[in-house]
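Recap from last week: sequence in, structure out.
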Amino acid sequence: MAQAVRWGLTGGIGSGKSTVAALLQRLGAAVIDADAIARSVTAPWGSAIAGIRAAFGDDFIDATGALDRERMRALAYAEPEVRKRLEAIVHPLVGQETWRQAAIAEAAGYRHLVFDVPLLVESSHWRARVDRVLVVDCSPETQMARVMARDALSRDQIQGILAAQAGRVQRLRAADAVICNDGITPEKLAQEVDSLAQRLGLSSPHPSAP
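Predicted structure tokens:
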């Protein structure tokens, strides 16, 4: 059996990447969501919690046994080196679970695997592990407006997140295909994703797709 085609899906915060991932899933791809996995390993008593407690102390674990995200975000914003320390704990665990889920999906017969990875372009290894990079693109102004409407974050906090991510030009240079999600309706976005998926060979839903 031929190996499944591996897509790397990425885009800056507020680009609509998760929406595109959901559309690809409906078309029959298996989506492995790195953000969701990261949340699971930092959830109450997740596999990253012991390491986080050892590195940062009990103050960064909340009453439920999960990572205190607000406290950690504030510290990382004030001390950029903190983010690297946290990633050194979380990323190996996310990687293990990512490839476990990919193996299960491929064994189940999925021929297209979509790795939803926010920091794919910033990573030193992801490009070599996927066959194609799909970038969801929009302007920084659109990103800012969407995140402010969606999340309880200040403009300064969002700008800090944007500064920590690859720039728009860097992402576009890494792309094999681009979905422009700026100034279009959800229906038009769905059409764009469907058209691209057909060009890339994803045209028949997997039996297990919702």
